[in-house]
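Next up, sample data:
>
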Amino acid sequence: MTAPDATGSTLIPCLRYRDAHAAIAWLEAAFGFRAQAVYAEGEVVHHAQLVYGRGMVMLGSVDNASEWGRHSVHPDEVGGRQTQSACVIVADPDAHHARAVAAGAQVVIPIADQPYGGRGYACRDPEGYLWWFGSYDPWADHAGPA
């Protein structure tokens, strides 16, 4: 089986936020995402799609009673620890870092050149999700499997 070639991104992280509307606004201001679609009723965001280049994250409001929600937890329910995180390729990690810090991102790994290539940093958003932003592009930086 092969993945579809016509789509923008075949792997899309999905996140749940306690205040999804505020998260969307913050992710746009701090990280440069753009809301492509937001399906909401009042304070509840049922589904939102935020894009960055050809990448995307989907998010919605925390709902522990839903079929999907019963299988996941919010960072504040597990002491802020993560079992996965999003890695976003950016053209200028230093400028991105400055923008994120100015918006209040909590940097957990300082920006630095990485031994495997590229430059990047890790931070948390206001609800505790862990993000990595950097210039290392595994698609461009590797000719194929080792």
Summary: The domain at 14-141 is CATH 3.10.180.10 (2,3-Dihydroxybiphenyl 1,2-Dioxygenase; domain 1). The mean pLDDT is 92. The CA atoms of residues 54 and 71 lie 28 Å apart. The chain has one domain: 14-141.
